[in-house]
Amino acid sequence: MAIDGKVIAGKNPSLVLNHFDNEERKIINTFSSEWYITNGGSKIQIGRSSFYKFFVMCPTENYKELFNIEREIVVIFSNYELFEARSLNTFDYVCQQFPNLRIEKICFVLISRDSNIEEKVNDLIKREPESQIVIPFHYSELISIKDNYYLRNKFKNNFYNRDLFAFNSPLKKDIYFFGRTDLVHKVVNRHRSNENSGLFGLRKTGKTSLIFAIQRVLKKQGGFSVFIDCQNTSFHMRRWNRALYFIIQEIKKQNKLSIKLSNEELYTETNAATYFEKDIIRIFNKVYQKSIMIIFDEIERITFQVSPTEHWKKGLDFVYFWQALRSLFQKLNNVFSYLVVGTNPKCVETSMIEDQDNPIFSQVPYEYIPPFDVSQTRQMVRKLGNIMGLKFDEIIYSKLVEDFGGHPFMIRIVCSSINEIAKFERPVRVEKTLYNKGKVNFNKSYSNYIEMILTVLKEYFKDEYEMLKFLALDDINSFNEFAILSNEYTNHLLGYNIIDENNNQYCFKIESVKQYLLDSNKYQKINLSVKEIISEVSERRNQLEPKIRTIIRTVLQANYGQRDAKNKVLDIMGGKRKEKYNSLSYKELFNPNTVEIYFDDLRKIILKYWSSFENIFGKDKNKFHSNFDTINKYRIDAHAKKINNEEFMILRLCYSNIEKQVNNFLD
Question: Both 559 and 602 in a single domain?
């Protein structure tokens, strides 16, 4: 019931509850004290022997505020002593059978007679992270509730304890799929118009989730598709002719078709295209003459020059494979189309392969997967955040796009990071301070995700990766030299939505990527001020010195034992220091807070006992001596010495040499 536009707890006067028993009616009355019961639902049968009942309830203002629920919630009765996972399918059945109900798809209530229902549902959700939020109850606990907050707290526990941002695998359902609906329908419409398509993007841009969404839409429209994972060894280890057979078998298997097809032995290099044509036509007739979309994911796995498999990487397997598919696509009107998906568009960008024409060059219209804009980011973050009790300020949505370039995976991870550090008492407001803490936590704990995302450039586009480093380090001249050399360099970076361009001026679209590159290459930055040079020298020395002390202490003890190792260190110190520190333990000798152990002492120890350290610092003793001496000489942070640019470059090289050796040993 609504008063002044607000929903009040109670029951719809026209509610029909005849199909519920007395116990179930008492439970409905319990819910009606805090919800508005709108629809009595019905008794439904699933399979031959499973019967369930359900009703529908509308959230009152408290529940709307707590969980951002506007639509009605389905409540399902499972009148069985033992809960089975298939009971959860009842919700999907209700949604399909009663499409006119305005149902909230992200959650539902399950009332079971199984005394362990809560534990079993929670275990199931852990194994199925894409499942809806299920609020489990036992029949008995809803009959006589004495705590006025019991229902509300039960909802809170099940809503706020789930991290809905923490999805690492491709999304197979619509529930948590956001922001790509237009692109999905665009690809589907191209297929229905007998056109092929290509989609490319960085890792974790949601390519495979997009594929699953495309397949769901096709299925709803009565269409057919097949998903070919090119990184499956059963596919890319096959030669081109047997790969065609693999596709045919997957179409049959994935669409559960009962049909007799040609044997694999017939798919010889000479006859593979002929038998593929016969088999695809048989399938086409079997599926009511509806065009089949053949989807190739991870297309670079069968792409020339970049495939991990020799016969695709070299030779003409790629050419023969696509010659067969392209010629049959043109010959068999509206029988099938193909969608190629991956990180590297090389397969459609390169015109010649081994002096042969690339069959799909300029034949497959392709695009890069666009990033989320502020509106799409808001839709996803607000929906999931509110359900978890995270109330994001409006400004945060634009900050997420600015800092993470609309990259949906990174946005989810930083929001998951915010969820980790937010107080348990919910709802909680996510404003600038909490957002910045989450971003710092992301940069500290999840930088490996950025490295993984940039792997595409490191593997396939090394020049473009170097360009990004130049741009991050403000070396604009070096960046522009590449940009002027060929549009292809900037086209990839613009296509992947890493950078933006305005009047030939380039900047990062993903600030977190810029920061990652800056942190990873900060000692390569050029045109530093005197203050910045001093800061770098001080920072590198302060990081390096304790590591070298640790190495010396560990190696000497391992080779000579604590007693002899202590004497050797004291001998290097000599004079008053030897006498002063003689009573200290071996370990204490390396504590700079209590002992005057100089940087040059470390050099002397290593050189005197070089045979113990040469496996760490290399065979060239003179080179080590030179590197170490240069580092010790230019202590400009401590002695205000001047250093010119050439000397600073040499000093940087010396630091890099020693740092690499030290870190390799300690890691």
Answer: yes
Question: Residue 90: inside a domain, yes or no?
Answer: yes
Tokens, residue 657: 């040499």
Instruction: Look at strands 197-200 and 336-342 and give their pairing.
Output: parallel
Q: Which of residues 368, 396, 425 is at a domain's end?
A: 368
Cα–Cα nearest to 605, from 563, 568, 657, 631: 568
Instruction: Extract the runs of DSSP E, i.e. beta strands, from 22-142.
Output: 35-39, 43-46, 50-59, 73-78, 107-112, 133-138
Q: Are 120 and 83 in contact (CB under 8 A)?
A: yes
- Residue 191 and residue 165 in contact, taking contact as beta carbons nearer than 8 Å: no
Asked whether residue 362 is assigned to any structural domain, the reply reads: yes
Helix (H, G, I), strand (E, B) or coil at 341: strand
Cα 639 to Cα 140, 531, 532, 593: the distances in Å are 79, 14, 16, 20
Domain count, the chain: 5
Evaluate whether residue 173 is within a structural domain: no
Report the range out of 156-160, 180-184, 597-601 with the highest average pLDDT: 180-184
Range of the domain at 90: 2-160
Q: What is the tens place of the pLDDT at every residue in 534-553?
A: 888 888 888 999 999 999 99
**Angle at CA 501, nearest 5°, toward 497 and 506?**
100
Whole-structure pTM value: 0.83
How far is C-alpha 170 from the geometric centre of its chain's CA atoms? 9
113 in the same domain as 260: no
Question: What distance in Å separates the CA atoms of residue 358 and residue 351, rounded to the nearest whole number?
Answer: 5
If asked whether residues 358 and 425 sit together in one domain, one would say no
Instruction: Identify the domain boundary among 497, 522, 547.
Output: 522
What is the per-residue pLDDT across 122-177, written as a single tens digit (0 to 9) for each? Answer: 998 888 888 889 999 999 999 878 788 899 999 998 988 889 998 888 888 888 89
Examine residue 170 and say whether the peptide bond preceding it is cis (omega within 30 degrees of 0). no
